[in-house]
Amino acid sequence: MTSHTTRFAPSPTGYLHLGHVVSAMHARAHAGVSGRFLIRIEDIDAQRCTPELSTAVLDDLAWLGFVSEGPIIKQSDHLPRYRALLDGLRAKGLIYPCGCTRAEIAAHSTQRAPDGSLVYPGTCRHQPVSADRVPAWRLDMARALDAIGGEPGWHEEVRGRIVGDAAAFGDVVLGRRDNGVSYHLCVTQDDAMQGIDLVTRGTDLFESTAVHRVLQELLGYPEPAYAHHALLFGADGKKLSKRDGAEAVRNLRECGTMPKQVLALARAAFTQAGMYADR
Ligand code: GLU
């Protein structure tokens, strides 16, 4: 098996659950014998990610035997570094300020992006934002695609060469108005900075890769390969999340379940989910 630098990058919006464990196992397995498995905490959302939850997630991972083979990055410690990237994109005229509220976007948007979000109708692309509004910063996707010569592709482990559809996401937010950064921006920066050459994650993020590939090209970062894993679903048919308390590693721990048993549970649930790998 080839070796890679991979990462498990949870957002600590709740306790670690079996879906996370599958993701961590997937990343570690893909690192191979002489590769590196890294852990990164994606906690830029200060409302939803608390320091207590970050600590709990890291503690559960350690209890399960997941060791980061390099420094653990906490994105909240590096906000100025991500914001600096926006300065470069701003200087090139590739991002613009947007003062629209959610309600205004909902009133004017006519399309949904592949991730289910509303496609920005472009209202602020060519007009100034009124001074009483703190702006978000959006990527001018058409300009960005022009600057890099069209949609970049990527290699996916199972599906082979993929042609992206970043245009379908429209002008995504790169700098949120509350913290000046965004998931797309931070994940792109950190994957490059940590030398991740194989990005492993759930199929729910498959389409977003198109946006990350655009950013990698704009920022001059190398192209990693990608491997997606099937998602675990709760009894209600929805993706496992922090709402599924029964699946939280913390609860299993408190009931006396041993790490090996938790890993076996995750493996069994994953084998079952694999049957529905394409959602
Ligand atoms: N932090 C993201 C999440 O927990 C994953 C990001 C990624 O793997 O690209 O859903």
Automatic annotation (TrEMBL):
Belongs to the class-I aminoacyl-tRNA synthetase family. It comes from Kozakia baliensis. InterPro entries: aa-tRNA-synth_I_CS, Glu/Gln-tRNA-synth, Glu/Gln-tRNA-synth_Ib_cat-dom, GluQ/Sye, Rossmann-like_a/b/a_fold. PANTHER family: GLUTAMATE--TRNA LIGASE, GLUTAMYL-Q TRNA(ASP) SYNTHETASE. GO terms for biological process: glutamyl-tRNA aminoacylation. Keywords: Aminoacyl-tRNA synthetase, ATP-binding, Ligase, Metal-binding, Nucleotide-binding, Protein biosynthesis, Zinc. The keyword Ribonucleoprotein does not apply. This is tRNA glutamyl-Q synthetase.
